[in-house]
Write a structure and sequence with these properties.
Blueprint lengths: L4 E5 L30 E9 L13 H5 L2 H13 L2 E5 H10 L16 H9 L6 E5 L19 E6 L1 H7 L5 E4 L8 H12 L3 E4 L3 H9 L5 E7 L41 E10 L2 E9 L6
Helix pairs in contact: 2-4
Length: about 300
Amino acid sequence: MRKFQILFDEAEPSAISDPVLEPYGNFGFPAALGNGRRPWTYANFVQSMDGIASFKGKHASGGDIAQSLEDKWLMNLLRAHADAILLGMNTLVEETRNLPNLNDGRGPVYQTEGEELRAYRKQIGKGREKVIFATNSATIDPAAYRIFDGGPVDAFVLTTAAGAKKLSGKGVQTLVAGSGDTVNLPAAMEMVREKLGIQLLLCEGGPTLYGNMSRAGLIDEKFVTISPIEVGLLAPPEQELSEGEKPASPALRPTTFMASGFTTENVPWWRWISSRRVGSHEFNRYRRERTPVQT
């Protein structure tokens, strides 16, 4: 793995000095994390130069966009700092479908990879890793996914009252936020802070969950890797489909934000707080501003 070239960095100092940070350099978070009622939430995405987050089809992962060992390492550094990871349930379903040889076809477990990073995680006081899957409908069979086996991470399903009822008796830890058809994300974030003690939360998407989190003002920071490729919004006719996409054609590829957007009056502003490069890949960090940024 190559070393990150620091272009500029205005982030807080690292919590500890450790050789594991040597490739990246300084990495820290604010001493006071938000208002104390919900976790300080940071997101991580990779996108192409034209803003696309996935090829879709059988090459739907962010890794297919990044094609970078450094991006994968940074993802694990971000996981090492998180008290929990937040994911949309569809991300688990799609990644399990598109990785048929992983864990006998039962999908990823989203644990921090690498012994050095796991040791670093312990040094900065992090406990057992937690993964929270958000879903409105909860139409899954938990037995089909290794992450619900009670292995190296604790898995939770964040859902509605109706969704929790579907999962009753299936050995899944549920978090219920909202009595309607959709998860109440602001209430859910307060719940995970109070019940699970989550102070730092990493949102890994997908784009719909991230968009709804951002729309609700629940994302404080975002790490964005820009891969030096141009993908295109419309999937071409020769696009290789995954089993889940047949027979429909994946006409539109997702951007990193796939939810109801903003107007000029309520659009959020972000402060660019660090930038690094490795070759032609760009690694940026942004922090949400509560007032417009002066340009």
